[in-house]
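Quick one: Solute carrier family 40 member from Gossypium klotzschianum, structure tokens please.
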Amino acid sequence: MAIFAVTNSQLSFNLFNFSVSRREAFISRQAASGIRHRFSSSRWLSLNSPPTNTHSRSFDSFKLRCSITNTDVHFNQVATEDEDLSATDSTTPILQLKSDVLETESLNILTGDTYVDNLLTTLPVLSEEEQEALAATPAHPEGLYAFYASCLAGNLVEQLWNFAWPSAIALLHTSLLPVAVMGFFTKLVIIIGGPLVGKLMDHSPRVPSYIFLNAVQASAQLLSVAMIIHAHLVSSASASSSLLHPWFAVLVIAGAIEKLSGVALGVAMERDWVVLLAGTNRPTALAQANAVLNRIDLLCEIAGTSLFGILLSRYDPVTCLKFAAGLMMLSLPVMIGLTWLTNKLSAGVLDRAKCSQSCCRMSAEGPLPDADNLVDTGLKAIKLGWREYIQQPVLPASLAYVLLYFNVVLTPGSLMTAFLTQRGLNPSIIGGFSGLCAFMGVAATFISATLVRRFGILKAGAVGLIFQASLLTIAVAIYQSGPLAQRSPLLFFLCLIVLSRLGHMSYDIVGAQILQTGIPSSKANLIGTTEISVASLAESLMLGIAIIANDVSHFGFLALLSLLSVVGASWMFCRWLLNPTEEQRSLFSFDPQF
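--- reply ---
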């Protein structure tokens, strides 16, 4: 039986979880205003219940919900009338509470498995403004800035090379065939190797694998530069004969390795690294980091394409390619140093395991790749990647993103660069076109924020797709209305494509956050690289058609197919918004427009 005495008749209780065990029944005679008591217990105290006969268990623990302030607590050990002390070896505590004034503040007395703490810690409750400020603050801001610098160094070289190689090859021949063949086999390698590389990265340490892929990409780029310089020194008469030369085969292999490494690095940065550095539970900071990454990529595209275009308009292709090679060699040590600095400034957050130890050794995804059974492991990784990709809850949004990859003509890509080069446009104008397309992407990072506030994150993506489809429809109609022999119709055609990039990049920004929300971090690289593989499959189909219709006169037909892919992506995404599943509703419950 518990004797409970209160010395102040005005003392009131706010019941909440408070427990005392028999072995923790001693509390020093001190003012309790600065003490938080935590006791282990398993039962509630019922003050109105009669005493029971199971005395050995009745005092093992009891719980009392109360809030007390400026109160002295005293325990007196007395025996109960019906208690056998020799049998139970327990006493009844008398709790005396003394208080002069009961203030409005109350102690938050918590249950726990430890003994009494001697200091009271106040649990703060953040205001709405403070919560918003916390959500907008990155978890590792210094590491995030170093990460931005690393992305800047790598993307500048990659974007310059993405413009340089099709321009240099297009100057060799008047056909789209060499560029289309290179693009086709590059996408084929990504389709096959993407899931395998994604699985390897999911089971490998982040920093070493990231540095290794950077080194592989730089080596492949340098080898490609050497092959294209060799081709310019021993130029062949026809495009078909060039495809049979050893240098072209080496160029295709090196280009495929370079692109596969770039895809893996991009997925790691966008789906894994930025999430850890910005904070998984800080959505505003993550959205801002995504926008910064997009701006870095697009600004590098503006700088890289414009720089190489200006150089190509003033110097011969070999000199420009040597300049690109020097830039590649200089950027590699810079990227490696910034990568280590990123991990150091983020307190080693990139060293954390992506899954538990048992999961890493043998998970449901299968064992780690074995050198003796690499082909079988690769096939299993491809099968696993496609299964996980199909089962993701945001599949319709991802498929809409994949459909956009069918658009290989009405975009600043290799085929458009080759087409404009063969039409005799000045390389500086072609570089300016690519730079303006990238500038529209930078503008989209600001406009998309306004669209999200007005329409919600998902409807903002739909607005971007519809805007892109509308402008490209007008562009294709102008092209089909007559040949673009004069400069003015051609420039107007290009201006419509530039403006359409505003909608494309708006959806690209939204799509990145949709996939980050719907895909778990343990499968981010696997699903991300598989998505790129599916997109590469779509792109390779269009490049296969371009190989067949490689004459410049067939460009209008290719443009029409590209337009249909954008219209199909808009239809699929809007259909998903009108018919979401319950799982999708729960994932995007924060979006009031969904």
